Amino acid sequence: MSEVEQALVRAADAARLAPSIHNTQPWRWVVRADRLELFAVAERQLRAQDPDARMLLISCGAALHHARVALDAEGWAHTVERVGSLAPDAPLAVITPGERRTAEAEATRHLQMLQVRRTDRRTVRDEAVPEDVLDQLVKAAEQAGARLHVLGRDQVLELAVAVERAQAAEAADDRARAELATWVGGERPEGTGIPSSALPAEMPLTTVAERDFQTAGTVEAGAGHDRSATYAVLYGTGDAEPDWLRGGESLSRLWLAATEHAVTVLPFSGPVEVPFTRDALRRMLGGAGVPYLALRLGLQDPARTAPPHTPRLPATQVIRVED
Known about the structure:
By secondary structure, the chain is α+β, with helices and mostly antiparallel strands. The protein has ten helices and nine strands. It has helices at residues 3-14, 54-73, 105-116, 131-143, 153-171, 174-183, 241-260, 270-273, 275-284, 315-318; strands at 27-31, 36-40, 76-82, 93-100, 147-150, 230-236, 263-268, 290-299, 319-321. Strands 3-4-2-1-9 form a five-stranded mixed β-sheet. It has a four-stranded antiparallel β-sheet with strand order 5-6-8-7, with helices on both faces. One of its GO terms (molecular function) is oxidoreductase activity. This is NAD(P)H nitroreductase.
């Protein structure tokens, strides 16, 4: 195996750590002699909650960015073609490596953050994220192709209503409830889904309700509230498949920057999954773009032990090397 192929395998392996909707990990990678191809896996799409594959594309975009971070950390220049195809025999994206050069310190830090990043559903500290850090997170999202709109207090209340309405709509859908039960709870030995060890034992008392996973976890939610949390909407100007991929790349880029500043990121996909609440998010943006996700940003409590990583599929199930 050539030096380039080995680097591409390592990049695909790093991408296994990417966040995904309900930890479905709906991607697979094909390593070729001169490129790395990303494919969607239809079997791990949430058909009831995500029939248009928007959250699948966001998830795969996050994996795409993780792979690029790994290449950057080794100094590999590369280009990306975002095809956006959901067909099983056509890639979502293709990474083509170029020359190798000295890696920048920022790229090394990003790789380190990739390895420690996780989803923390517990309450946040009673101290707001500093404005200069928020500015850096806004810039990080823009660097990857999307934008971050920070919500004012009145808009946070609108988001709370949208989240509540989206939860009610999905709770009334038998298929959505059954699908959720398939991916959430238990020990998850198969390597996908959200285990009980990553879920709060009780729902935190917050202005914007977290997703009700219909099962209790084992993590103490904490006694705080979300009054000091910052809520935002990640959005873009396009609604095609490559645009949603870029949305996932921006989520990953923002999340790594947040991790570096001890800021937790909690995505809210529910109001994007339901058409009428997605329209509500669009109105919050003043019609300026397409909402990809709502996010809660808050400072980590340094006294708490970090929640465990969610399980991951083995590399042999998501990476194939073509001779």
